[in-house]
Design goal:
Number of strands: 18
Distance between the termini: 61 Å
InterPro entries: Arrestin (IPR000698), Arrestin-like_C (IPR014752), Arrestin-like_N (IPR011021), Arrestin_C-like (IPR011022), Arrestin_CS (IPR017864), Arrestin_N (IPR014753), Ig_E-set (IPR014756)
Radius of gyration: 26 Å
Protein name: Arrestin-C
Number of helices: 2
Order of helices and strands: EEEEEHEHEEEEEEEEEEEE
CATH topology of the largest domain: Immunoglobulin-like
CATH architecture of the largest domain: Sandwich
Keywords: Sensory transduction, Vision
Pfam families: Arrestin_C (PF02752), Arrestin_N (PF00339)
Structural class: mainly beta
Number of domains: 2
Shape: elongated
GO molecular function: G protein-coupled receptor binding
Strand order of the largest sheet: 3-10-9-5-6
Mean pLDDT: 83
């Protein structure tokens, strides 16, 4: 059962693109097929043909800048099919049947399979910057499917942005652990810090408990400690740029006296709503003006070269102890 149909008509009225959904799931081993339909009114087509294109592209710069030539866009992966005159007949799916009934007469089905090498792409944009990886379905009129010298008028195209999403693994693993031992001048013994998490996967908005143990064998006082969550975005497509931004910071005014111990479970929740004014954050891709969240961690499939991933996102939790006279 499809509750909604997404539709876009070209400026000349001759092409109407139909999709049954705009979110396509990356199952790591495969990606949902992109099944759609185009309704044609060929009265003004002349000797031109109708093509449908699915493209994955890296973009830097807004559409406004594209007008003056300052938008950088690189097609990473692209597929074309010709649907008029008809030479592409996909096996019809339940999605096709629904869309063909909706579109009515003179409607042509198409189907794309996303390349396995591209299945690990996630969609991001940076707050206050138009930068990211996106998928676009476009139908257009042209004499040839991909002739760079042929100018395709905007009125002869209809396009819809789609989004590929990854579901979290069904099996949750053991959480990470870390420990450190720090010595200080004028103190014979060190401070021990140990931190552990219950599991290795958390959903957006889910509280993250962190178990902290401090064993202060030194002669200095731990005045307080700070917990920070850093988001690191690695743009690997066109450069080696890395951006690290704190998406959560909180200080805890707990003291640990010399030769004292401390043990507690702290709960943190990094949220986009607390980072609305920060620049350069990677966010999960969104369609139009719908709500989104901090970008999900990129899940890598074994054997895939990082260079073809476009953008990688990861998170790190840091715990800093503030020690009187020790830093």
């Amino acid at each position: 059962i499809f509750h909604r149909v997404f539709k876009k008509t070209s400026g000349n009225g001759g092409l109407t693109l139909y999709l049954g959904k705009r979110d396509y799931v990356d199952h790591m081993s495969s990606v949902d097929k992109v099944d759609g339909v185009v309704k044609l009114d060929p009265a003004d087509f002349g000797d031109r043909k109708v093509f449908v294109q699915l493209a994955c592209a890296f973009r830097y710069g807004s559409d406004d800048l594209d007008v003056i030539g300052l938008c950088f866009r690189k097609d990473i992966w692209i597929q074309h099919v010709q649907i008029y005159p008809e030479n592409h007949k996909p096996e019809l799916s339940a999605m096709h049947d629904t869309l063909l009934k909706k579109a009515g007469d003179n409607a042509h089905a198409f189907s794309f399979e996303v390349c396995d090498n591209m299945s690990i792409f996630s969609f991001f944009f940076f707050a206050f910057q138009a930068c990211g990886v996106d998928f676009e379905v476009k139908t257009y009129l042209a004499k040839e499917k991909n002739n760079p010298d042929e100018k395709i008028e905007k009125k002869d195209t209809a396009r819809l942005i789609i989004r590929k999403i990854q579901f979290a693994p069904s099996e949750v693993g053991a959480g990470p652990k870390a420990d450190i031992c720090k010595s200080f001048m004028m103190s014979d013994k060190p401070v021990h810090l140990e931190a552990a998490m219950e599991k290795d996967l958390y959903f957006h908005g889910e509280a993250i408990p962190i178990k902290i143990k401090i064993n202060n064998e030194s002669n200095k006082t731990v005045k307080k400690f700070k917990v920070t969550v850093d988001q690191t975005t690695d743009i690997v497509l066109y450069s080696a740029d890395k951006y690290t931004k704190a998406v959560f910071t909180q200080e805890f005014g707990e003291t640990v006296d010399p030769s004292g111990t401390y043990e507690n479970t702290l709960t943190i929740t990094p949220l986009l709503s607390d980072n609305k004014e920060k620049r350069g954050l990677a966010l999960d891709g969104r369609l139009k003006d719908e709500d989104t969240n901090l970008a999900s961690t990129t899940m890598l499939r074994q054997g895939i070269e990082k260079d073809v991933l476009g953008i990688l996102v990861s998170y790190k939790i840091k715990i800093n102890l503030m020690v009187a006279g020790g830093g």
